[in-house]
Design a protein that fits this description.
Elements lengths: L2 H13 L5 H12 L5 H9 L12 H4 L7 E2 L6 E2 L14 H16 L5 H13 L2
Antiparallel strand pairs: 1-2
């Protein structure tokens, strides 16, 4: 009966270790072998890619102000703010971050985003006030 509590404790401790936006951004920057740039991240956020008529850029759903809630351009579903200062849960789970970059980059950019673009994007969203 002793192994069950130990396993339970291990599961609980690993689940409670959330990552920070800085850790996630640093991981992307290390993969890309670049220093993340909030300035490049903002330019990427504001760029119009034109791959999708309803979602030509990030701001199509997330608004021009990452501190504000957005709305999905197709479904109308509400989207919490992208900026970490307005949404503390943003960029705190590496698997979720990668999932959403995968979906959004494919739909909006028309390709997978590079690790450098992801690092820059996370850096910008971490600095917006």
């Amino acid at each position: 009966m002793r192994p069950i509590p130990i396993i339970l404790l291990l599961l609980l401790s690993s689940a409670s270790q959330a990552e920070t936006p800085q850790q996630i951004g640093q991981a992307y920057a290390a993969e890309a072998k670049v220093t993340a740039s909030a300035q490049r991240g903002e330019a990427f956020f504001r760029q119009r890619f034109g791959q999708n008529d309803k979602m030509p850029g990030c701001t199509s759903c997330h608004t021009d102000n990452p501190l504000k809630a957005g709305e999905h351009a197709v479904t109308g579903k509400s989207i919490r703010p992208l900026a970490v200062s307005a949404n503390a849960d943003r960029f705190s789970d590496a698997a979720k971050v990668e999932k959403w970059f995968g979906r959004n980059c494919k739909e909006v950019v028309g390709r997978a985003c590079s690790p450098g673009e992801k690092a820059d994007f996370v850096a910008y969203m971490s600095e917006v006030r």
